[in-house]
């Protein structure tokens, strides 16, 4: 994976092969950050990265100046890798090893951007639980966004707070806002 912009632009980060992940493609990540760049000042926001995997999205936010990043994943190997990478590059990333749904049920930490990249094979009910818990616990700050990455074959437009979606290859980002 490669960091697209910011302090660590063009830096390649090689994740261990044994991690149970599907990193966001560079094309999809670049498109997502082009959208976010028009909505936020990266150095003035906080981010919650759910199902963080390799930390790909967290690193991109850190490279662009975000100082408050929390990465949540249940896999010990993923958390260990994110911690090692964050330490190596002095990135302000806090990790939490937890099942994301258990974390969301107890979370009180608000963020400007909540990014979730759950497994693409999730059921509709599992996908629906993410915005449900985010909105139920008021985890988005004012004018904040929940972004869920999923397969283009999954339709999340009926879920609470859905605003719009963008497709990049086989990936889709659905954007949600608190109303």
TrEMBL record:
Keyword Glycoprotein: no
CDD domains: AdoMet_MTases
Class of enzymatic activity (EC top level): transferase
The protein's Enzyme Commission number: 2.1.1.171
Pfam family, one: Cons_hypoth95
Superkingdom classification of source: Bacteria
Gene Ontology molecular function, alphabetical: 16S rRNA (guanine(966)-N(2))-methyltransferase activity
Keyword presence, Transferase: yes
Keywords (A to Z) from UniProt: Methyltransferase, Transferase
PANTHER family per record: METHYLTRANSFERASE
Protein name from the UniProt record: RsmD family RNA methyltransferase
Organism, scientific name: Gelatiniphilus marinus
